[in-house]
């Protein structure tokens, strides 16, 4: 996607396309390119980015404006992409990353309030790397088997400046081993804080609130000693306490049992800290090297069996990216190397039936990618091409130290369900877009992916535990294709088909040992087949100014889609005879049947004068009936009905945002309503009923460098359960927040 950061370039593009947008504040010369197809909603943004204040400009700013220059802005960008900018990131709410995607149709952030880690759900699929989750292009693959979400990424919203979301699997970086798309969290860069010519600049924020929102603060310093070197250092800290649920209405655990709202939600507090360092070197005008290191740590408590466990989690991410854009040529080259290491250390005091344990779960992931983009003139029209390769390797480790050795003499309680092993996934890809006329685009892509995995499970054979080696490998060819018609300026009709492919993870294929504390045995499955998805989507997007008034502007995108998943992997009851009689286990199997999800997604924005409005709507339907073979290891088949269920969004979710600016844009007032329909979740401990939640905010620019913002979430103090949040806990009640941001 072409990204216009200078005012002159932006105006030129807008005059060329008939689109209209506004940009003030600091241009960004260091931001990485993305593929977002439309501008962030609302069309104009509240005065929270502070770079413009330091220069004395009005604080109105559009988030990372992406302009569809008719048919030619970035033909290679997938049609199902969206970019979330800093304004919507700051509206995420008081409890970390939970609300980052509340205003996005077809995607959501799932979070257990007792753990600051998050999972991204895209069109009903999540966990086990089904959605590729990245920070600055580095995959966040950490998994920990247990109750609730198993795949966790640790993200600090204070250090984010953009979220790049792709709701399909494309022939691009991030597609290897993915089933439902990808999301990339882009962190702060020097250009986010520096105007052209500035040698240094900074930003800081302090905030506090009610309902457990004790402290939220960050500081960042950017520097540019020369045109060839720039960098940024940033630090962020959050302190959350246990929150209270809403008092209006009730949350039902059954038709006759109601959650006691006076109890609050114990262990929903945490303390997190993040530090970021990023350096950008420009050796020549057409090359750039970006080095980045991000350190995240979290301290929090959880509880099981009436005992409090202390947990410390660290996530470290390092990236090195090289960009080459030769002058006078139409090609671009990008190389990326990265590492992510996550460690979760737990202190588990004694229970009634066993003594204490110290447990350490760890995952190290190394990876890299190469991408080349170029434009070619052909007799049939302009051809945009991109091709490359990507690969990554996961290595897991679990260590458990028992206070009393006889409690777990075989060492299988913790390492059994979180086994040690290695998993490599990679592939090559190519995609192209042919534009035979100015009103038509034809897209085609191809991926060739492969994987290899090895590990050793601990398998109960009726008399004791035996080693069960698991070795898997495989390849897949994944096509994608589509077509777009542009019948008039600013209007696009599109239809696309894509396929995804996800090999099993180590905790699925090498599952073993037993449940902590009692004899519920787990079993590996070396015969697990990769999951495969097929997605068809079609829709229309329109962007135009002068709809109702001379100075108004609007855009809307509507998409319908159908996705089927075959060989979905689910945990079920299985049976096997390994020489000492038939044994009963819990293990992962492929479900014989289709997991179907279909839906409608609508997103739009409209603005005129001082007023801006944003809308997102998703209507979702899922259908998943299947069976599985309960004897997966031998020639005997035992077909049984599956209990598998998708982590589906509610059937209806609607978000509407309105905002107005007054007194030369010094004051901004806005609000949001979020409605979710009731959902049926067999894994929830609650009856998930429909809910309507109201939020509001107001900000005042105090002077050229400072801005004060007040907000309230869940204004009516509703008691409700977030259908895609942790279904083990109700959502927070009314919360007031106050923050001060400064830029210099």
From TrEMBL:
Q: Which UniProt keywords apply?
A: Cell outer membrane, Membrane, Receptor, Signal, TonB box, Transmembrane, Transmembrane beta strand, Transport
For the TonB-dependent receptor-like beta-barrel domain, which residue ranges apply?
A: 290-715
Specify the protein name.
Hemoglobin/transferrin/lactoferrin receptor protein
**CDD domains reported in the protein's UniProt record:** ligand_gated_channel
Q: Where in the cell is it found?
A: Cell outer membrane
Q: Which SUPFAM superfamilies match?
A: Porins
Q: Which PANTHER family match?
A: HEME_HEMOPEXIN UTILIZATION PROTEIN C, TONB-DEPENDENT OUTER MEMBRANE RECEPTOR
Q: What is the lineage of its organism?
A: Bacteria, Pseudomonadati, Pseudomonadota, Alphaproteobacteria, Rhodobacterales
Taxonomically, which superkingdom? Bacteria
């Amino acid at each position: 996607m072409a990204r216009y950061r200078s005012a002159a370039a932006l105006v030129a593009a807008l005059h060329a396309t008939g689109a209209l947008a506004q940009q003030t504040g600091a241009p960004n010369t260091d931001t990485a390119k993305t593929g977002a197809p439309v501008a962030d909603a609302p069309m104009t943004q509240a005065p929270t980015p502070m770079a413009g204040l330091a220069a004395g400009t009005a604080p109105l700013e559009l988030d990372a404006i992406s302009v569809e220059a008719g048919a030619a802005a970035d033909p290679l960008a997938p049609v199902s992409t969206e970019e979330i900018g800093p304004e919507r990131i700051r509206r995420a709410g008081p409890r970390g990353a939970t609300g980052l995607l509340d205003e996005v149709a077809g995607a959501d952030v799932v979070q257990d309030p007792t753990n600051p880690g998050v999972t991204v759900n895209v069109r009903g699929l999540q966990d086990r790397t089904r959605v590729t989750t990245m920070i600055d292009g580095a995959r966040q693959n950490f998994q920990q088997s247990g109750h609730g979400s198993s795949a966790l990424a640790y993200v600090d919203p204070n250090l984010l400046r953009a979220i790049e979301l792709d709701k399909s699997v494309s022939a691009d970086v991030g597609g290897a081993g993915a089933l439902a798309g990808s999301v990339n969290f882009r962190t702060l860069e020097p250009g986010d804080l520096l105007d052209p010519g500035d040698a240094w600049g900074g930003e800081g924020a302090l905030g506090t609130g009610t309902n457990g929102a004790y402290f939220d603060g960050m500081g960042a310093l950017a520097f540019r000693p020369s045109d060839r070197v720039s960098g940024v250092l940033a630090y962020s800290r959050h302190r959350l306490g246990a929150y209270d649920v809403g008092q209006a209405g009730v949350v039902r655990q059954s038709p006759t049992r109601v959650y006691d709202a006076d109890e609050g939600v114990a262990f929903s507090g945490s303390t997190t800290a993040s530090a970021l360092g990023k350096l950008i070197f420009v050796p020549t005008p057409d090359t750039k090297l970006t080095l980045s290191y991000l350190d995240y740590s979290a301290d929090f408590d959880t509880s099981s069996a009436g005992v409090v466990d202390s947990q410390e989690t660290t996530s470290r991410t390092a990236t090195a990216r090289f960009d080459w854009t030769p002058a006078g040529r139409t090609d671009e080259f990008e190389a990326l190397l990265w590492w992510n290491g996550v460690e979760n250390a737990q202190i588990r005091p004694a229970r009634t039936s066993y003594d204490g344990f110290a447990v350490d779960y760890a995952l190290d992931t190394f990876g890299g990618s190469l991408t080349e983009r170029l434009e070619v003139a052909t007799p049939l029209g302009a051809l945009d091409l991109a091709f490359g390769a990507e690969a990554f390797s996961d290595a897991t480790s679990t260590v458990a130290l028992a206070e009393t050795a006889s409690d777990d003499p075989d060492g299988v309680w913790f390492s059994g369900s979180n086994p040690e092993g290695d998993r490599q996934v990679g592939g090559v890809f190519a995609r192209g877009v042919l534009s035979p006329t100015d009103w038509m685009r034809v897209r085609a892509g191809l991926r060739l992916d492969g994987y290899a995995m090895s590990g050793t499970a601990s398998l109960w054979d009726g008399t004791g535990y035996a080693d069960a080696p698991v070795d898997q490998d495989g390849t897949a060819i994944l096509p994608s294709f589509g077509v777009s018609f542009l019948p008039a300026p600013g209007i696009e009709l599109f239809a696309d088909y894509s396929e995804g492919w996800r090999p099993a993870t180590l905790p699925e294929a090498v599952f073993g040992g037993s449940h902590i504390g009692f004899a519920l045995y787990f079993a590996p499955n070396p015969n697990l087949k990769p999951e495969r998805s097929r997605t068809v989507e079609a829709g229309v997007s329109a962007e135009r100014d002068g709809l109702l008034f001379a100075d108004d502007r609007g855009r809307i995108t509507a998409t319908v889609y159908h996705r089927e998943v075959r060989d979905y992997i689910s945990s079920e009851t299985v049976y096997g005879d390994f020489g000492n009689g038939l044994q009963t286990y819990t293990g992962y199997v492929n479900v014989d049947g289709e997991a179907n999800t279909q839906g409608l997604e609508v997103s739009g924005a409209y603005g005129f004068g001082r007023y801006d409005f944003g809308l997102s709507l998703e209507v979702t339907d899922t259908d998943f009936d299947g069976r599985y073979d309960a004897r997966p290891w031998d020639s005997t088949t035992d077909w049984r009905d599956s209990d598998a269920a998708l982590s589906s969004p509610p059937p209806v979710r609607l978000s509407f945002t309105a905002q107005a600016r007054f007194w030369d844009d010094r004051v901004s007032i806005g609000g949001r309503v979020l409605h979710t329909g009731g959902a049926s979740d067999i894994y929830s401990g609650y009856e998930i009923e429909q809910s309507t939640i109201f939020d509001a905010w107001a900000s005042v620019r105090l002077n050229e460098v400072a801005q004060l913002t007040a907000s309230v979430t869940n204004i009516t103090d509703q008691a409700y359960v977030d259908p895609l949040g942790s279904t083990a806990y109700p959502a927070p009640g009314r919360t007031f927040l106050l923050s001060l941001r400064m830029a210099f």
